[in-house]
Amino acid sequence: MSNKGFLVVLSSPSGGGKTTLCRMLQENYSDIAYSISATTRPKRNNEENGKDYYFMSEDEFKKKESEGYFAETAKVHDYFYGTPVDMIKKSTDKGFIVVMDLDVKGAMSIMSKFSDSVTVFIKPPSMAVLKERLMKRNTDDDEVIRIRLRNAEEELKQSDRFKYQIINEDLEKTYESIIQIIENEKKRRNK
What we know:
The chain is of the alpha/beta class. It has helices at 18-28, 58-66, 85-93, 104-113, 127-137, 142-156, 171-189; strands at residues 7-11, 32-34, 38-39, 54-55, 70-76, 79-84, 97-102, 118-123, 164-167. The chain contains seven helices and nine strands. Helix 5 runs antiparallel to helix 6.
């Protein structure tokens, strides 16, 4: 990998498929590095610290934020999330494509700091499908799902600010579309 890598930001409302798509990319491509975010939200049963997120207390998060540790931070559903800036720079300098899954606020922040990033908004086919996906995840109670759906309506209004938009009706087809975007970006940047 002699070429400089780049940043790919996948964004969607909660339940839109961005985390699953990032994992699929990471599992199938050796030149893709997944950017692990830090969060103050509680760890879910199926998550591991350092693999899914860096879980930290709010005090620890705020301290690191004040030290400039994060490329972006956002408060989502009453918890803080942030992306360590060092991981992005070190990985892209080594030629890796760094893939991030971020909410819309986080994606906007990254766009302002990394203007050459490739931004992809993953849209649900409908709000009804999004609600069904959130309920199937079985990770949130009804009130949290209501909040996530209300936030999704606002997030969808921002989709035109992204370079690419994909409707995630079929996960495999969405994945193939993202691969095509990445391949096109590689060719464009390596000319």
